[in-house]
Amino acid sequence: MVSGLAHGQNPRMTGVRAVILFDFAIINGSHATKIADLFGKVRVEMESNRQLDVNECIRMNHDALLHVFRNCADIVFRPLRLTDDSEILLVYIEELTDSNKLEQIISACMISRDLNRLAQYESVTRIAEVVAKVLKGGTAIFLDGRPFAYLADLTAFKQRAINEPSNEAAIRGPREGFTEDLKTNLSLIRRRISHPSLKFEKHQAGELTNTEFVVAYIEEQVKPELLQEVGRRLQAISTNQLLDSGYLEEFIEDKSLSLFPQIQNTERPDTVSASLLAGRVAIIVDGSPNVLLLPMTFWAGLQAAEDHYERFIYVSAVRLLRLVLAILSCLLPSVYVALTTFHPQMIPLALMLSISASREGIPFPTVIETLLMELMFEGLREAGLRLPKAIGSAVSIVGALVIGEAAVQAGFISAPIVMIVAGTGIASFAFPSYSLALPFRMLRFPLLLAGGFLGLYGVAIGVMFIIIHLVTLKSFGMPYLKPVAPIGKNFWKDAFMRMNKRFVPAPKKQ
Amino acid sequence: MKRIGALMVLLLVTLFIAGCWDRNEINDYAFWIGTALDVSENGKIEKTAQIAVPAGFKSSGEGAGGGQRGNIVISASGSSIVDLEQQVQDKLPRKIFLGHRRSIFIGEKLARQGIVKIMDQFTRNTDTRMRTDIFVVNNGEGRDLLNINSPFNPFSAIVAVDQDRFCRLGDTALRDVLLDVGRDGIRPSMPMVEIAPKNKQEKNEIIEVKSVAIFNKHLQMVGEVSGRESLELFWVKGVLKNEFLTEETGEGTVSLYESSLKKSVRTEIKGNRLKAYVKLEGTGRVLENNTDIDISVSSERIPLERKLNAIKAKQVAATIKKLQQQYGQDAFGIGEEFHREHPYQWKKLRNRWDELFPKVEISVTVKLKIQNTGGIGKRVPGIGERG
């Protein structure tokens, strides 16, 4: 369930859920009953507390909050008694609060008794809202005799510094990357687009995590239908947790069974800004440095951020190279296997003879050989990905030796296969987008089998299926291969190649 | 979803059950690189195959001619080509693969007997590559050629193809021969290879391509032209792209490298008289000038060009005459020119072309242009200087 923070939680809805939980517990009976029963009870009590309004009596508030926050060691209750016997209660989370500011407020209240100073803060009348804000790092200030609480935003917590995004490094262009903090991330975007039509719509999802996320767009550029569609899909989310933007992506993507990513993700604020300016929508989730960009096209995955900073002729050449490498990373092993085992006519004689010379005495059929080596390579890559750097290099050396030298020396694997696998590996690293490289990595294997069983015929069928899928795929109403299929007016401007910006008008609302 | 799953299973099952796949590892193929066809003593056809042995040339990189040949040569004799192929197969542990055959050598004896019987199989068999080069072995057996150990390539069949490409006799492929066979106004011709005599230091034999075999309508070899004449034959035929010319001008020799050679033939039918005007063109550069002519001066170059043209035209006319008189075969394709320009009259001529061709009056004009005089105008400075 998602709702704007301003409206608070819908108490009736959650109440109904609690009742359902209760029913479930009764029906289930036996062992599980007890736990569920307890859980249900807690739920119900909590909900009843949340519906409460802030009482004038500070003690009542204290009790109510204590009840909500029982066994929460990180929540600090700090009752203060002023000289005139009036009481103040501060509720906050120690680690999320800037203690200096807090002390300032306390001293202001106690020494100068300037309680009016608190009026600058938001006043909240419902306990539920107080709870929500405190959990987000706010400081609740209850004053005796006032039926509301002040909520001071004194949030300060330790966070990662803004680093260069290691997965999307660029030679030229800004080196900032998003961090895990939503506010920092928003500021990074706002600094690039200083215009009031850049909108940040705040939402919240996850009944337990209460994660905030922001839908960003530029009002002048974005198509209203796209915004509506995004809103509709976000409304439909029902989850109690939202730990990363990846969670959100799975809930709102068009085809969850497709291998191809339909929502782009990036760690670069400049990429996000450029996309926003092109009329796309960004979703920034608190706690995740990966921002979602939608709709995504296939070509976006083949474009790096610096494509727009480097000179356009070079960029166009590099983009073509990337496309060729993308195709190679998918097709090289299967075409090799198909050609050598089904269509030796198609290989030039000299090449063929040297292939067959190096294959002399190899025990496996070419398909099996290639499959083995590809699996080995993928294993090596997966193993190297998560190992500490010191061990990682050792693994890659061992892997290179095992795969490159020893296997050929021992006569298990023929030398051309090593070249093919290495070439495929290099080609698959040429993708600027990691998530677009994944489907190509995976599709290599079914294509390899098709090539091994049916030759080029099988490869052609496989490729046809992939293309049919890509052509029918849509991301938020945008054809995945646009502007190539269907061909669009931007075909020459920013897809295969990039034109000089002088000749490309700034994107307008379509 | 269920239905799709069932369909997938069905598809997979058909794949495995049907067993109709032609997967074959590269190492289960015996690559047939060259064929030689000869007549055996008892009058049967003898077929010899040069087959690649991949394990052999793995090590051949290290020591040139170091024992390992990289190929084996297998012979079989019988009456039909397909039967022979099967006989060769019986001697091999791997499946023979014709898709990479580079050349076919026909022994001169067989060529003179006629190769109609052989050609039929080549046109029918879909495994045959139409770009396979075809040669006649001059004064020899095709088998001997396959047995040659060339220092350049483990396969003498490939050496012949490569050599054919650079010896300027065009490269005549099976396709060209078959095309010529199918037409009435031209008779096929094929380059001839011969084994050059060994000299003392040479361990290996060398192949030479220097003449052209001329066939008649029934695909029997009737004769050959060699050297300069063979180049002229191909020039008039329109196959030759460039050549080196050395002409004696009377004051010394001049050598030219002529490129972008062109021919154009006009034909004329006047009653019973058939006339053809052959015009040969080329532009070239001077490579060697042993005369005292200063080519850089137009007033001296133009007369030289005229002289060269006249000499060349005489030579070409003589070659054409030789073919008309001696062999009576239209290897030039003059008949095709008649066909093109007089399609209706051609219908009456086509069946009698072998009788008519020797009587055709052919006049030759040559137009060679000197475009580049080389580094210097006169000969080496100081020689041939005129005061």
From TrEMBL, chain B:
Residues 212-374 form the Spore germination GerAC-like C-terminal domain. It holds the Pfam family Spore_GerAC. The keyword Signal applies. Its main location: membrane. It comes from the Bacteria. It is a lipid-anchor. GO terms for cellular component: membrane. Keywords: Germination, Lipoprotein, Membrane, Palmitate, Signal. Residues 22-194 form the Spore germination protein N-terminal domain. Gene3D superfamilies: Nutrient germinant receptor protein C, domain 3. GO terms for biological process: spore germination. It is found in: Membrane. Belongs to the GerABKC lipoprotein family. NCBIfam families: spore_ger_x_C. This is Ger(X)C family spore germination protein. It comes from Paenibacillus sacheonensis.
